[in-house]
Backbone:
């Protein structure tokens, strides 16, 4: 790792200028294993980056934020063209990518929780398999569950009240990003009544602010900009965060919310033991694939290893710069993207959901919410 | 606050701000004029420049784009009968009828003028309202939103007039088609008959093009001649349009005010506003007979509302980060890309930027409408061109627009299917707006009803807001009936003047029935049975709405049949052989597109059509075909679009 450190001092001093990309490319080529110098590590002139969501959506903005960074830090500054293929909540675009993408490094895919979840649940529309792709980079997010002050003036009394009376949460769909939150609340023994059909988490938050829902959940950046003011005014009581995954795959406190306990801590506190069993297994997997690895940059698995390493190295380079840190805090929230093998390991672990766990989840959705999933 | 207001005004009038805003306005007009593109395509043109720009300048550019899209799409609605976006569907009805009567210039100039005024009123409302809007936006819960969709649906009754049962059946069909896809309450998929394409439901653009544009093209082809059936005087029309707006200034102000307020309610916005204001124009008019045949008020009302609505839609976008409309959603993406998180901060810490946005909005409306007014005269001349020359170009444009909806072959097939329904509806004078209103409002009606019941139980319908909107709906439905009854009584009291005599034969006019009516009634009943069998196996929450839609459709059809059974109808010949031939030709065209590829088929089709049917000279026809290819290739290049590739295209154009 020592070559990386010397580079770091170099890059922190330099502002982003056109030549920097080339310079870093040269440096990174030196630090790469010998195989990277092989002919198949030639970066294509242009890279088509498929985004299976519409223009202006969260994942689109995320990709457009990353595109210039990749472009500037890759050798020969390739053009990154973002190709939006919306539909089916990202299933259509991912299906097309799985069917058509060339494995020469010229085609990337951006995925999100709503691409991961249907694959894990065995949705009949899914014709892609995460085993056919490998990750370049992942960006994590966290999330916070908060309650209306009508349930209690502080977190403890609100949590007590949650166990006494049924509560309502405005959600998108039974298999949407709220899934781990629903499992978590159910594990705590909360009588949770989700109301589905919201078109975004933002609409869910509106329902909470209108007083229709008395519990809600937001991911970190939306929480900071839109819920923190409510908390300051005493109109929302934060209960717990989902936490983050550490390098060993353990759920620990979210550094953004150091004072807020994680779900695991709350469970430990109320039930007197660490969470376990099928419910927790489902929670952990869907948390990992939907939050710890919320958005992923993927390439087909047959993409030359050397080229993949060039891409990953470029990402490692720009992630370290101060300018990136500053801008990504505004764009992605206070989390550092993860690059390379750590992503692969976590992703494999998250996507490998046992049949038993999946079956439990399907039965649970049917029993609890009368939701009958179509599965393959 | 006043100093912020003025300092942001100063910011708007800096050179860089004006230049970038002009760029935004021009891009917005171009993507607005080309049907099927809209804000999303415009945004994808501008987004690459956005990263790293000074936020206030970038916001001016984005605002320029967003503000003028509901202005630019009026061209296609009025001149070609193509609803360019959801904001201009109601404009099509009377705008295109006016064009057919040779008054395109009048319709366009009054549309642009009322757009401009509407946009300005919207910006003024927004200036003060954004500071106090938070509680109002929050006072609209799911139950009020449901009632608003009902208010929108009640416009069906206003628009169908005498043919209420047909209107109901058409609306039921619209609701049923709109219910295709995922059930919001349970996540179940319904009415998709195993087709992947239907999982997301039909896209609005495809339905709008199929139900409005395609039947008009076919009708004009069958009639021959130009779009303008009567001689037109462009210059006079232009001035006439200005006079119309001045005469109807009350209507403009009401519709703009209403549009800007409805725009602030997230989740409804554009989809209901133009129909509601159109319905209002019909109801408030003394003489309703010209609506649907070319009444200028039918253009002024929705056009003054839709730009105002685009202003209003900024409220939830900026204050809550929840977009109020499709283009606001794209604008939201732009904000995030600039590193601005919408929320309370937009009025607490970024008030200057918020006012920059509002000023830009006002200025962009003036610029956009001014440019369009300048263009209106020359472009209206298109309606004098022989239609057989325009037809291939418009057809290619429609295919282009439809395919951009989801970029799947299903878009084209759905276009042909909806188009066939549209042709039959037009032939038998069934209400196409009723169908479209049902389609557009189906998801909202279902979702909000379900949410209202789940969140609030039976208390949902005792809220004051709900009662007020409920009273409004009753007023919409019953005031016209009461009014006409009262008038009749007064007339009979006055001793049966000439008016009563004149009115009497109309009242007793025999209902008419034709072959297409019979076909449609039978088809709808058959579809009702078929769709019922599809949703019968779903859970209660997932199936109750489509069942309701089926019931409305079936009962409407049965009531229409009963009406004819009671009172023997006059048989009306409804021949549509020629229309069916054109329709078959259109289907063949789609098959060729899928086989050969879009660009090559478009070139071939234009060439053969212009030579064989329009009988143009070879070089003119070839020139136009080359122009079409250049347009398609250029669009694909600049907007990274894709087309059905087929076997020929990859060879020739890659």
Residues:
């Amino acid at each position: 790792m020592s070559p990386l450190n010397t580079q770091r001092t170099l890059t922190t001093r330099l502002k982003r200028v056109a030549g920097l990309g080339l310079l870093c490319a040269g440096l990174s080529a030196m630090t790469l294993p010998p195989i990277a110098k092989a002919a198949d590590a030639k970066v294509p002139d242009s890279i088509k980056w498929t985004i299976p969501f519409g223009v202006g959506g969260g994942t689109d903005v995320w990709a457009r934020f990353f595109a210039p960074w990749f472009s500037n830090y890759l050798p020969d500054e390739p053009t990154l063209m973002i190709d939006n293929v919306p539909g089916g909540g990202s299933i259509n675009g991912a299906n097309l990518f799985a069917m058509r993408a060339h494995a020469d490094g010229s085609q990337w895919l951006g995925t999100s929780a709503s691409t991961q979840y249907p694959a894990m649940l065995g949705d009949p529309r899914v014709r892609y398999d995460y085993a056919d792709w490998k990750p370049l980079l992942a960006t994590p997010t966290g999330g916070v569950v908060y309650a209306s002050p009508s349930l209690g003036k502080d977190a403890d009394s609100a949590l007590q009240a949650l166990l006494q009376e049924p509560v309502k949460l405005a959600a998108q769909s039974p298999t949407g990003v709220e899934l781990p939150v629903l499992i978590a609340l159910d594990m705590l023994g909360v009588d949770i009544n989700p109301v589905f059909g919201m078109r975004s988490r933002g609409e869910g938050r509106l329902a909470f602010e209108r007083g229709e829902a008395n519990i809600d959940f937001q991911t970190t950046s939306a929480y900071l900009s839109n819920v923190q003011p409510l908390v300051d005014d005493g109109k929302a009581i934060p209960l717990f965060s989902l936490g983050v995954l550490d390098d060993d795959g353990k759920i620990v406190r979210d550094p953004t919310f150091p004072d807020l306990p994680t779900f695991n801590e709350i469970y430990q506190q109320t039930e007197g033991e660490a969470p376990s069993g099928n419910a927790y297994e489902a929670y952990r997997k869907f948390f990992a694939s939907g939050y710890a690895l919320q958005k992923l940059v993927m390439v087909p698995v047959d993409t030359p290893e050397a080229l993949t390493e060039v891409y990953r190295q470029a990402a490692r380079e720009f992630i370290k710069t101060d300018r990136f840190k500053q801008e990504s805090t505004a764009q992605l929230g206070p989390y550092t993207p993860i690059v390379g093998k750590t992503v692969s390991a976590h992703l494999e672990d998250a996507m490998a959901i046992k049949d038993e766990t999946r079956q439990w989840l399907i039965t649970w959705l049917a029993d609890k919410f009368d939701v009958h999933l179509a599965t393959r | 606050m006043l100093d912020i207001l003025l300092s942001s005004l100063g910011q708007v009038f800096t050179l860089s701000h004006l230049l970038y805003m002009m760029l935004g306005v021009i891009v917005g007009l171009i993507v607005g004029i080309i049907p099927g593109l809209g804000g999303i395509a415009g945004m994808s043109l501008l987004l690459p420049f956005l990263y790293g720009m000074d936020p206030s300048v970038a916001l001016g550019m984005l605002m320029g784009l967003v503000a003028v899209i509901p202005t630019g799409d009026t061209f296609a609605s009025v001149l070609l009968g193509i609803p360019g976006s959801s904001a201009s569907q109601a404009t099509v009805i009377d705008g295109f009828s006016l064009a057919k009567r040779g008054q395109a210039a009048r319709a366009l100039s009054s549309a642009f003028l009322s757009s401009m005024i509407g946009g300005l009123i919207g910006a003024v409302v927004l200036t003060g309202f954004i500071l106090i809007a938070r509680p109002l936006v929050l006072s609209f819960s799911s139950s009020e939103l449901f009632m608003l969709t009902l208010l929108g649906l009640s416009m069906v009754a206003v628009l169908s007039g005498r043919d209420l049962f047909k209107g109901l059946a058409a609306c039921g069909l619209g609701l049923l088609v709109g219910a295709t896809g995922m059930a919001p309450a349970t996540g179940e998929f319904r009415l998709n008959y195993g087709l992947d394409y239907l999982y997301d439901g039909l896209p609005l653009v495809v339905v709008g093009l199929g139900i409005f544009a395609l039947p008009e093209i076919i009708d004009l082809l069958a009639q021959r001649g130009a779009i303008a059936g009567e001689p037109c005087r462009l210059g006079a029309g232009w001035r006439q349009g200005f006079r119309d707006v001045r005469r109807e200034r009350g209507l403009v102000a009401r519709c703009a005010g209403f549009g800007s307020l409805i725009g602030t309610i997230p989740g409804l916005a554009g989809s209901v506003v133009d129909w509601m204001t159109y319905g209002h124009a019909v109801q408030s008019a003394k003489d309703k007979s010209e609506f649907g045949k070319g009444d200028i008020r039918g253009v002024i009302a929705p056009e003054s509302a839709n730009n105002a609505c685009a202003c209003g839609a900024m409220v939830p976008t900026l204050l809550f980060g929840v977009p109020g409309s499709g283009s606001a959603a794209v604008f939201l993406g732009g904000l995030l890309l600039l590193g601005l998180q919408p929320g309370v901060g937009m009025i607490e810490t970024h008030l200057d930027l918020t006012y920059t946005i509002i000023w830009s909005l006002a200025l962009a409306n003036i610029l956009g409408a001014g440019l369009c007014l300048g263009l209106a005269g020359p472009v209206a001349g298109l309606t004098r061109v022989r239609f057989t020359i325009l037809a291939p170009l418009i057809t290619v444009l429609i295919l282009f627009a439809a395919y951009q909806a989801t970029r799947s072959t299903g878009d084209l097939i759905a276009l042909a299917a909806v188009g066939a329904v549209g042709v039959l509806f037009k032939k038998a004078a069934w209400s196409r707006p009723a169908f479209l209103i049902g389609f557009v409002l189906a998801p909202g009606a279902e979702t909000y009803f379900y949410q209202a019941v789940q969140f609030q139980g039976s208390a949902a319908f005792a809220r004051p807001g709900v009662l007020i909107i409920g009273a409004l709906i009753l007023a919409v439905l019953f005031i016209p009936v009461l009014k006409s009854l009262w008038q009749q009584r007064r007339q009979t009291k006055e001793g049966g003047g000439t008016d009563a005599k004149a009115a009497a034969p109309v009242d007793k006019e025999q209902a008419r029935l034709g072959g297409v009516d019979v076909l449609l009634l039978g088809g709808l009943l058959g579809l009702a049975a078929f769709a019922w069998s599809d949703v019968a196996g779903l859970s209660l929450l997932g199936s109750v709405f489509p069942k309701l839609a089926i019931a409305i459709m079936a009962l409407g059809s049965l009531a229409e049949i009963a009406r004819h059974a009671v009172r023997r109808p006059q048989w009306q010949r409804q021949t549509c052989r020629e229309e069916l031939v054109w329709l078959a030709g259109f289907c063949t065209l789609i098959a060729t597109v899928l086989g050969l590829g879009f660009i090559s088929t478009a070139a071939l089709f234009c060439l053969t059509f212009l030579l064989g049917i329009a009988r143009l000279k070879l070089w003119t026809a070839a020139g136009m075909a080359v122009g079409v290819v250049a347009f398609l290739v250029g669009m694909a290049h600049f907007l990274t679009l894709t087309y059905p590739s087929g076997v020929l295209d990859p060879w020739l154009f890659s």
About this structure: The first strand of chain A starts at residue 46 and ends at 51. Chain A touches chain B through 55 residues (CB under 8 Å).
